[in-house]
Write a structure and sequence with these properties.
The complex is a heterodimer of chains A (202) and B (236). With 202 residues, chain A is mostly beta strands. Chain A has helices at 151-156, 158-161; strands at residues 47-56, 60-61, 66-71, 96-100, 106-112, 117-119, 122-124, 127-133, 141-146, 174-179, 182-186, 189-190, 200-201. In chain B, strands 2, 5, 10, 11 and 12 form a five-stranded mixed β-sheet that branches. The chains are: A mainly beta (202), B mainly beta (236). Bound molecules: fe (ii) ion. The site of fe (ii) ion (FE2) has 3 residues of chain B, from strand 8.
Chain lengths: 202, 236
């Protein structure tokens, strides 16, 4: 029997493969502003659309890739006990969403522009964490989307500062017009080669 | 809620699969060429969605008899296990997703078109549950068949079950596969063998339970999954 605190080694990652069930997806899974499909969206913040294309080596679109987004609410709080201001977090904002890429490699998330916060690493600029899973990826990739609205906070962000200066612009979403009355941002991912997206490990 | 992890050590050596992965052509076009950038785990990594069952229905644990009275074709099995963290503490409320091929090695998926292995009208082959207070989960299913991968070199995937686990922290997110003990195809599988350490590969293998413990209805397998994460200050 396992004793509490008996140290265990983590289970290895494996690829998600090409057959992640399409029946797992429901409309609204890519909407971070609703805690459930039936719930009303949170309105505490600026509604935005985040969209882009996932490509592999040679710029070829990556079909059937799975992306998961996780972010703070518009005031920079997570509805999670590890956030000291958890109790003040927006109760109508889920902050999590899942999207999968279409035949052209495209994805989109409906969300609110995140707020910044300060944690042990320092002052964090508003950002969205992305996890990427796909056939051909044996390990889940983690990257972070920043926004051009916040040049000062971006400059001070300790995680962005860890990225070589020449590659930092690759983590900035680009203004991409309007969609259904809200601002759209584009964030393309290049998994390998060319202007390769910076990925993080902890 | 002091049971939530807030310390994430680097992956121990020999655990994560080698990338790109010898014998698996897709990894040579998808795996980043640049080394990942090391960053401290911050609040965005310690936190994650805790009430996802409102978003994702977590009520499908019987894959073997989706239509009452019409069991799927194949060897009926039950897979039970616990989701734990690196301190050995149960992860309650984790979302566990499982998907797999049918007994003929065919997925119920529009992209599985490379050969005409039969579909089973009584087997879709995916389920989603949430772990209980002890971190426990269970699925009734059938043992999946092996299938060939459409690569130039002949490569058969051994019977395996895909798992996706969403834990309490965004960094504890895990996508993995479960293999069956003693399968002759295991040592030839590029995905299984991509894990360098034999002891780490062992943790991808289910444990067959003694039939007397399980009964005459199905074969039983046990499979625990350990997510990254531990407590910075372990409770005494
Ligand atoms: Fe598979």
């Amino acid at each position: 029997m396992l004793k509490p605190n008996a140290p265990l080694l983590p289970t290895p990652s494996q690829t998600i493969g090409p057959f992640f069930p399409q029946t797992f997806f429901q409309a609204g899974d890519n909407d971070l502003t609703r805690v459930s499909a039936a719930a009303a969206p949170s309105t505490r913040g600026e509604r935005i659309l985040l969209r882009g294309v996932v490509r592999r080596e040679g710029g070829i679109p990556c079909v059937n890739a799975i992306l998961e987004a996780w972010q703070a609410d518009a005031a920079g709080r997570f509805r999670h006990p590890k956030d000291p201001e958890c109790a003040l977090a927006d109760p109508d904002f889920l902050g999590w969403g899942r999207a999968w890429t279409d035949a052209a490699g495209g994805y989109e998330f409906h969300t609110l522009l995140p707020g910044g916060f300060t944690d042990a690493a320092g002052p964090r600029a508003p950002h969205i964490e992305l996890a990427v899973m796909a056939s051909g990826l044996m390990r889940t990739l983690f990257t972070t989307v920043f926004f051009p609205d916040f040049p000062g906070p971006n400059e001070a962000d300790p995680v962005l500062a860890a990225v070589p200066a020449a590659r930092r612009p690759l983590l900035l979403a680009q203004p991409d017009g309007e969609a259904a009355g809200c601002r759209a941002f584009r964030f393309d991912l290049q998994l390998r080669g060319g202007a390769e997206t910076p990925f993080f490990v902890e | 809620m002091d049971s939530l992890p807030d310390r994430f050590d680097p992956w121990p050596p020999g655990v994560q699969p080698v990338v790109p992965t010898p014998g698996y052509p897709g990894t040579f076009t998808h795996s980043p060429a640049e080394a990942p950038i090391r960053r401290p785990a911050g609040r965005g990594q310690f936190t994650g969605p805790l009430d996802l069952d409102r978003k994702l229905p977590c009520d499908e644990m019987n894959l073997a008899t989706p239509n009452p009275g019409r069991p799927a074709i194949g060897q009926l099995i039950h897979i039970a296990g616990r989701i734990l963290d690196e301190d050995g503490r149960p992860v309650r409320g984790a979302v566990v997703e499982l998907w797999q091929a049918n007994a003929a090695g065919r997925y119920f998926h529009p992209n599985d078109t490379t050969r005409d292995a039969p579909l089973d009208p009584n087997f879709i082959g995916n389920g989603r549950v949430r772990t209980d207070a002890e971190g426990g989960f269970g699925f009734f299913t059938v043992k999946p068949g092996a299938y060939p991968v459409p690569t130039k070199e002949v490569w058969w995937r051994p019977p395996h079950v895909h798992f996706s686990v969403i834990g309490p922290a965004s960094l504890s997110r895990l996508v993995t596969q479960m293999f069956f003990p003693g399968e002759p195809l295991n040592p030839f599988d590029h995905i299984f063998m991509a894990v360098p350490e034999a002891a780490a590969r062992q943790r991808l293998l289910a444990t067959a339970l003694p039939p007397a413990e399980v009964g005459a209805g199905w074969l039983g397998f046990r499979h625990d999954i350990v997510l990254r994460g531990r407590a910075a200050t372990p409770p005494c």
